[in-house]
Amino acid sequence: MKAPFDCLIVGCGLSGSVIARHLAEQGKKVVIWERRDHIGGNMFDYVDEHGYLVQRYGPHIFHTSRKELFDYMCRFEQWQPFKLECGAVWDGKYTPTPFNFSTIDTFFPKAKAEELKEKLRSAFGGRDTATVVEVLRHPDADIRGYAEYLFRNDYAPYTAKQWGISPEEIDPSVLMRVPLRFSYDTGYFADTFEAMPQHSFTSFFRALLDHPGITVELQKNALDHLTVKESALYLDGEPAEMPIVYTGALDELFGFRFGRLPYRSLRFEWKYTEADSLQAAPVVAYPQEPGYTRITEYKKLPEQEGEGSTYALEFPLPYDENAACEPYYPVPTEESLNRYGRYQELAEQVPNLIICGRLADFKYYNMDQALARALDVCESVFPE
Question: pLDDT tens digit string along 125-156?
């Protein structure tokens, strides 16, 4: 099929937009098809009716220890340092997350807390953190009991709500994302660069996509036009010869041939309070509350001046491509990873199909990981 463009990209999130910019700077004509009505994927933000900048699909902050990735983001937006503070509430008490020594002080009697902190210092001497999986396996009964307490009150109920499965079923990599700290240090991340855009994430995407070689078509579902038959791609029934970068769910592209891959979605309840502050940190988990997992107070992400405060409750739910929801997180279990592998093999048999992104790669990427993956595709598939 002879098309008036050199490459088709499906999805206008970070992965697709970065690859589009790379190709456009090579002199290629690129078209992006985005099924939603806006650019930026799940990083899309806007100013609400109360004058606060909010993120439609949940909280995002750019963080990385790789200077080249931060430098890339700085090409298209100014960034302001921002140290994200997060927390959790259960039994009516607040603690910072990742859990640290103040967590122990809050939930354990003083004598027991001092003994436990000393044991952790001794057992993990020279280390600042460990995963909850490591601590759960420790031979000391008190150390193990601390991890079991956290698992029972936070990790287990939160995981059950967030992922819709028991913690035993989830891939351990998910439980390892948030470590335990052996100090009083706070801050959710420990990266060299942590920042929020000076203007907005949407402004970043506008600049990223501002190139004469890039055309973005919104509210265009690629799967209404794109099909795969016998290891070949077709656009509207005609063979497609140009490269096609696909960032969506891989099972949908292949018509669920091996069954559905599990993705989790979110429903948000948006609220406004006349109080100037709702909670102690911008993002707070509520593992014991029925239904919702956390609350993001957007007045604090980034810090904004104004009366009252806008916030959103997050309710996880299964993704359904026929419902009015978006896939957010791949659910990595042994079964789902095996199924994804079969879809990946199909994709590799299609010469001009390039898959990239959290959904297409079936990986729980952070923003910097998604950027690194997209830049790797630029270098390996579309070298200068």
Answer: 889 999 988 999 999 999 999 999 998 999 88
| Predicted TM-score of the model (pTM) | 0.93
How many residues appear in the chain? Answer: 384
**How far apart are alpha carbons 245 and 134 in whole angstroms?**
39
Distances (CA, A) of 110 to 101, 114, 130: 12, 6, 23
Element (H, E) at 130: strand 129-130
- pLDDT for 257-268, tens place per residue? 999 999 999 999
Q: Which residues of 131-162 are buried (b: 16+ CB within 10 A; e: fewer)?
A: bbebbbebeeeebeebbbebbebbbbbbbbbb
DSSP assignment letter at 319: -
Quick one: how far is CA 325 from the chain centroid? 16
DSSP state of 224: G
Measure CA of the first residue to CA of the last residue in the chain; give whole Å. 25
79-93 confidence digits (pLDDT tens) = 999 999 999 999 999
The number of beta carbons lying within 10 Å of the beta carbon of residue 201 is 25
Please state the φ and ψ torsions of residue 218, each to the nearest 5 degrees.
-85, 160
